[in-house]
Structure formats: structure tokens, C-alpha cells
Amino acid sequence: MAENFDLVVIGGGPGGYVAAIRAAQLGMKTALVEREHLGGICLNWGCIPTKALLASADIYEKMNHAAAFGLSVQGASFDLGKIVERSRGVSKQLSTGVGFLLKKNKVTVFDATAKLVKGIDAPKVIAIAKDGKQTEIIAKNVILATGARARTIPQAGLEPDGNLIWTYKEALVPNTMPKRLLVIGSGAIGIEFASFFKALGAEVTVVEALDRVMPVEDKEISDFAAKQFKKRGMNILTSANVKGLKKTANEVTATIEIGGKAQEITADRVILAVGIVGNVENLGLEELGVKIDRTHIVTDGMGTTNVKGLHAIGDVAGAPWLAHKASHEGISCVEKIAGKHAHPIDPRKVPGCTYATPQVASVGLTEAKAKELGYEIRVGRFPFVGNGKAIALGEPEGLVKTVFDAKTGELLGAHMVGAEVTEMIQGYVVAMGLETTEVQLMDTIFPHPTLSEMMHESVLDAYGRAVHI
Length: 469
Ligand code: NAD
What we know:
The chain is of the alpha/beta class.
């Protein structure tokens, strides 16, 4: 027996569940098919549980530095099992919450794996439950939001084994506290786990193939962050390629090529964080002739694919692979289906945040990219050490950098490293969204004492008017 809906969403991550709720709000009879857990990777195996782990690590580090605040903590210690238990609890609470939200919005959830076959208005969805029961779902529109998973490189032995070589999944529920940890890849995933295990006392080495850590960030910011990571005792190897991994019963030896020379590093555990690939397999996409570029479904930026009635959003639709981009894309896609005003995502205005110690946050063009695009620029900088709140918090290490179009005063990019910058970046995102110029930013009153005052000072600095440096 077939069930009829206006829209079927496949995948219950931050792209899929947000799209389903928006569709229901717009009066569509909506179904959502999810094979594992609501909230997807973000809530269950990504953004959220890592933040919970990092929160524990942060308190532990602060306890170890209590004396600097006139406090004394004796015998600070941790229980990795309990830290992980808390992190899993946070994920569970939020995943359950997503279930309630879907129910409240009358979205029908199928606890099943979806496959697509040819249909009339759109592909037909076959939802296959764990007990094998199949339901045929017919709708005018189908949104694929199946997400992505860790990239592996089997030819170089970069393949997780669930024991010694981890992806983010195993790293979130570690079977042991590694004494020596090797992290391959210095993107957001690698650096966040490196920060977590370093804070708990592991000897951490990060290997990055490109010439600097977090290579997508502005060079000055990634150099600043690298200095801080090294100061915290992390071993950072850049322009370094892992050529192979050799395992024994309890450890892994990596052969790393740096400047044409091979070097070996032995660790108890390895975390692979070398990017992600879209979940495009076993869905029936080939049979339907869906256009795929490497592992991502090709769309028009509003979720439309080359197959009638089929849309794709979030990680499976390509970069940037961020939860907030997925949610936004989901809403745009649904509003377009509903015939409402919808706008494509401007990748320049998608902020990025990395929750390492120190945190990194950015939006827009880096200084190098702005120059490459031919802009004549003005650059402002403000160091945390010039900010009263940063000093009071004991967080004097950081930098706020702004890049302006010298001709028009348009804010082209903002790049920050230091405490709480992931909470502050939104100020610049709003400013960019409103096409603010330097004048409006300089005329804005920032509350004192806050870290956000540095955002003001950085703008002032770009125009030679900073007060506190
Ligand atoms: P990434 O692509 O951001 O970083 C992977 C890094 O690994 C790159 O810098 C690459 O140069 C390096 N690398 C690749 N092969 C290598 C090799 N053989 N040896 C050494 N280095 C190698 O990928 P990621 O960190 O796995 O994250 C995946 C995606 O998820 C990213 O787009 C990221 O932005 C997103 N994400 C975001 C957050 C966040 O916003 N906080 C958190 C997690 C993931």
C-alpha cells in the first residue's frame, strides 16, 4: 500500500529535519525517513557531542590553572568514561528533542532506510524498516539530505579499523585514553579532537598535508592559532604527507614524508580527519540518472537537481559542509517548492567556527583571497591583550582581523582567533548581510566591558582610529 505526501525528506540531520518542519509550517503533508537517529551526524556524532567533550576539557584545564585566579583545586582528575557518558547524554537529549519537534509539527517519521525508484511527479521512495517492512511513499517532491561521512584513503592505509585507527565516530567514544595520539588532517575535525585529547594530557601530533594548519582560514589567523597550539605542547607537522600506517597489536606507526624525507611516528591511536564524502550510495541515484560530481549531488544552489521533483541539500549537495548551511539550504529549498520567496546561499556569507583552544571563527574573504580577486583593501587588527574583558577573563591571547574594500568601505571578511570568537562572529555576519560599510560599524556602540569591543576596535584600526592599541 502506498502512502501519499506532499513532500518526503530523506535524512533527519540539520538539513533534513529543519526542511521537514518548515514544509509542515507551510501546510505541506510531510514525511521524513531516517535510518539511524534524528539530528543526524551533527547532533549525534559531530557538532554537538564534540562541544560537550570540549566543555569538560575546558573545565579540567581551568581547574589545573585555578591558582592563576586565586583559587585552589586539589587533585583535579577526570574519568574519560563519564566525560563520554555526558556527551552521549547531551546528544540523546537533543535527538529526542528533534523527535518532539517533528511530532509537534505533524511530520510523519519513518524509522527506515530509503531507496528511490522512478515515479511520476518525483521519484518514488521505498522506506525499508529494520524488520524488512517496506512502505511505498509517493510525493510531488523529494528532498535528499543524506549527509556525508569520513573520507578514507585505503591506498595509503588511511582506513579506520574501529580500534587503533579512528574516525570522528570512534574518537567520540574512545575505547581508551591514548598516551600518544596522531591526528591526520588539521581541518575543524582534526583540530577539535587534537585540542580535546591534548587538554586531557595526551601527547598529540597533528599532521597536515598543506603548508599550515586550518588551511582554509586566513593565513595570519592559522599562524596565530598554530603558535598557540604549539605553546600548549602540540606537535604540529605541516607540508607533511602520511604515506602509510603500520599496525601492531597496540600501536600504529605512521610513515610521514616531509620535504622529501621520510619520518616515522608511533602512536597509540590515530584519528583520521582528512575530509568527508557525500552519502550518495545505495539510494538508486544512478538508475534515476541523478547528476553527481565526485560524491556530491549537483544542484542549482537552491536544492534543485537534474531530476524532476528531486532536490538535494546539505552535505550531500556539497561544500561548505556545515550544519547551518544545510539548515538554511533546507529552508530555501522548501520555500522554493512552496512558491515562496527563496534565495540561494551566498557562500561568502556562511560563517565557519572551529571550537579548538583557541577558538577560530571567520566569515567572508581572507586577506589573500581579497587581493587575489583584485580588491584594494584596508585591514584592521586588534589583539586580545588590548581588551579589558579578555584580561579579566585570563584570555589575553587572540586576534580580531577585518578586511575592507578600500574603495567602498564594504566589509569583505572577518577573521578571529581567541576565546569565545565563535559566539562573536555573528555580529560581522549580520553586518555583511546588511551590506554594512565601515562608517556604520564605526558608529555602532558596542557594550563595555565585552570581548565584542575588539570587533569595533578592529574596524577602527582599519581606518587608523583604534583607541586601545
Ligand atoms: P577538512 O577538509 O576541513 O580538513 C582535512 C585536512 O586534512 C585538510 O587540511 C587536508 O589538507 C588534510 N589532509 C588530507 N589528506 C592528508 C594526508 N594524507 N596527510 C595529512 N593531511 C591530510 O576536513 P575535516 O576536518 O575532516 O572536516 C570535514 C568537514 O566537516 C569540513 O568541511 C569541516 O568544515 C566540517 N566540520 C566543521 C566543523 C565546525 O564547524 N566546527 C566541525 C567538524 C567538521
